[in-house]
Structures are given as structure tokens and as C-alpha cells.
Amino acid sequence: MLDLEGAAIAANRFGLGARPGELRRIAADPRGWLKAQLTPEAAPPIEVAALPHTADAAAAFYNWVASIGIAPGVYLAGRGDKALPTASPAPAMGSAGAQLGKLSIEQSYIHTLGPAYAAAVGVRFRLGVTTERPFFERLVRFWSNHFTVSAAKPDIIALAPVFERDVIRPRLCGAFSDMLLASCRHPGMLIYLDNYLSIGPNSPLAHHPQFLPPYLRERMTGLNENLGREILELHTLGVRTVYTQDDVTSLARIMTGWTVRGPKEAPGNDNRFHYVDFAHEPGAHSLLGKRYGANREGQGVEALHDLALHPATARHLATKLARHFIADQPVAESITRIAKAYLDTGGDLTATTLAVIDDPAAWTPRPLKMKTPEDYVVSTLRAVGAPAPSGPKLIALMERMGQRPYGAPGPDGWSDLEDGWTGADALWKRIEWASALAAGAASANMDPASVADAALGPLLSPSTLLAIRGAESPAQGLALFFASPDFLRR
To answer: Could you state, in order of their start, the residue ranges of all structural domains in the chain?
Structure first.
């Protein structure tokens, strides 16, 4: 017997929206369809694999800085969306440099780094629209948002898509501790949260700053707590839980020396991670009451492993998973069940995700989650079988909707709560997109009611179906469906 209701929940709440004909294929075993996607990729999709190597992405911003004649390390105005270089470029060399020299700093930044960023955005959306494993892709987006590395900071623009490919995708079905460690060793995170500039106050480097080039001497002035704080607040234990400010400081000391190889340094590995003992705060350190001996880089590895297995981390991650897949305010039983699966398996993400799939509350027919703008756009394209627009058009569209790709405003990522996406202007932008897409996708012989049924099946409400059937044209009917509460939620 076909379970069309379960299929609609699986495709929309767990996946990225149903494509024409997909619900009937899922309906034979909706939960089995989801569970079958919890297998590691033999290799990333071709377009994802073709994104720049980590080393090239890490060097891209700094090469641009050099091309306009700004000394490395003096270029950031802040972490906001408008953060751009503030120095004036020196006279450029060569024809390409002469051309860039005629542009403003902002124009030069967009001209040089914008095309690769737009290409990466196009890859992300095309994959979302065409994938046969939409639940896997939703998990990629979930964990990428959890470990936010945002292009709102200018020098991350090339690294954010690469971080998602190299840190998140390969570890979706493994241990959370592995993903946590990989995130802390990737140049995207180390640069985004400034740990590459952090040095131990009592380290040899702090006592001998003459070994640093002048531009780094001005920036590497001491301990930076950004990474330590976000590991505790966002990535593991959760805000205001079992740690203190002393723990933040202690973890920051433990993480000193975790830095990034410069573009001209010996390559090492493509990840570009580099541990510098000369910058590490010497001695033992205490974190959450446990003493970590003077074990150099191993001190941080051990601390991250312990944080990953902490009960507070299990509850924090379980809450985020339940909030994403079930409801903004999930019931306590769901959180407890998911957290138990996490702890019982040593933080195994496959087992934890299976607990989400098997949670009864996740299969409530009523859609309780508001789609983010990216979810919304991808699901509309999947519903009509339309291709994704080009990267530049997607960037402009998503900026209007308030969710610039790879551009979360802060380390806590994009909101997963309805309040973050239901303002009047935000809803109007969705209506505009619905109307534009419907006008292009609808044809004279299209039945928008059939499109709606193929996308939502039994979850399509009688009132929405009545409105669609009363439309004056197929385009209007399709636009009404895309703007309906049924489709706006998942």
C-alpha cells in the first residue's frame, strides 16, 4: 500500500521539495527512502568536486589584496556585509593591474572574486534542484549552517563553498567529533574566527615578536577568543550551559598555534592547516574541570573530542536537529530520544539522524516549519521541473529575500525559527518570485492543481486547492499555490 502522506512529509520536510512524479516513487517506503540516503558519497558530485582546491581558495583573497597593492593584513573593516578593504590601492603593475587600478576597491573585489563565488552559488542551487538525494543535501545545508563560515567576511568569499565540500560533505555519516576537528583545522574557520592570529600570551612568539613580519606584528598581539567561544557556544555545548568565561579563555589558549600556512609557504597538504608550537600557550590547561597536559597540538585534539562527547553537546545538537526537522519548539521527548541516540553511539551522526527519522513527532501531517528563502526557491524549481537561474541572478534573488548564499550575518548562522522569515517584506519577496516563476513555467495546457498535487499530495489543503482551481489562468493558479501557506511551510 502506498503511503502518499508519508511520501509528502519525507520529500518536503526532510528533503528539498518533491519533483513531478517523485511522491509515488517514495510512497512505497518513505522512511526507507530517507534512510537509504544516509550513506557516504564515494565522491562529491562532479560540479562540487570542480570547485577550487582549498589552497587556491585560501590564497584567492590574499592574491587580490596583493594585486591592488595593499600590504597583507591591513585590509579588513569588520565582519559585516559591507566589510570591504579601506586602504587605497597602490599603482598597479601590468595591463591587468592597470585595469583593476581604474576600479574602486569594492568594484575590484567584485570583479576579481565575484565570478568564482557566483559559480559556486550556481553549483549549490543546481545540485539542490536536480539531486536524487535531497535529504542528504538538506543535511549538508544543516551542518554547514551549524559550522557557519560566512562570506560576510570578505576574505572568506572563496573559502565558504570549499569548507562545505571538504569539511561537511565527507563527514555527514561519521562521528561528530571528526567533523568538529576538521572544522577547526580548515582555513575557512581559522580565518573566519581569527584563530590564525591568536598567540599564547606566554608563548615564545609573544616574547619574540621580532620573528614576525611587521604587518603580522601589528595584528598578532595576543590571545583571540573568537574560536574558543564559538566552539563552546555554538558548535558543542550551547549558549549559557555548563561552561564559564574561564573555560572560554582556557579553550582559546588550548587552540593557540592552530593556524594557516601562508600562500607562499611550503604546501604541506591542501587543507593548509599548520600547527605552530612557537605560538602555542605553554603548559597544562583546565577545561570544564578536566586538566589537559602540555601535549602541544594533541591538547586541542583531546579537548575537542571530549567536548563532542559531552551530554550538553548531545542535547544542544538534538535540540537543533529537532528544531530543524520537527518544529520551532520541539517536544522534550523528541530531544531526549535524539540525544540518547547520539550519546549511546559516541556521537555517530548516522545513528543520530536515524533517531530523527524514527521520531513520531517528525511525521505529523501539519507542516510546522517555515521554509527559509533558499528552501523556498529550490522547492519551487523542483515542483515545476525548472532549472536554477544563473549564479549572479541567484545571488541577486537571494539578497532580495534576505538570505545571501554563504553569507550568514554571524557565526550563529541563519535562523531556523519562523520569526526570522515571516516579515511582511520577506513574504512579499516570495510572492514576487512565485509570480515571476509561474509566468515563465506555466503553459496554456498546464493544470496547476495537478502540479500542486504532485508536490504535496495529501498535504494539500482543500482551501488551497479551491483557490488554485478558481484562478483565471494557469500562471495565476501556479502563483497562488507557491504563495499558499501549504507551500510556504514544510
So the answer is: 175-326+329-363
**pLDDT tens, position by position, 36-72:** 999 999 999 999 999 999 999 999 998 999 898 875 5
Confidence check: pLDDT of 379 > 70: yes
3-state secondary structure labels for all residues of the chain: CCCHHHHHHHHHHHCCCCCCCHHHHHCCCHHHHHHCCCCCCCCCCHHHHCCCCHHHHHHHHHHHHHHCCCCCCCCCCCCCCCCCCCCCCCCCCHHHHHHHHCCCHHHHHHHHHHHHHHHHHHHHHHHHHHCCCHHHHHHHHHHHHHCCCCCCCHHHCCHHHHHHHHHHHHHCCCEHHHHHHHHHHCHHHHHHCCHHHECCCCCHHHHCHHHCCHHHHCCCCECCCHHHHHHHHHHCCCCCCCCCHHHHHHHHHHCCCEEECCCCCCCCCCCCEEECHHHCCCCCEEECCEEECCCCHHHHHHHHHHHHCCHHHHHHHHHHHHHHHCCCCCCHHHHHHHHHHHHHCCCEHHHHHHHHHCCHHHHCCCCCCECCHHHHHHHHHHHHCCCCCCHHHHHHHHHHHCCCCCCCCCCCCCCCCHHHCCCHHHHHHHHHHHHHHHHHHCCCCCCHHHHHHHHHHHHCCHHHHHHHHCCCCHHHHHHHHHCCHHHHEC
Supply the pTM of this predicted model: 0.93
pLDDT category of residue 474 using cuts at 50, 70 and 90: very high
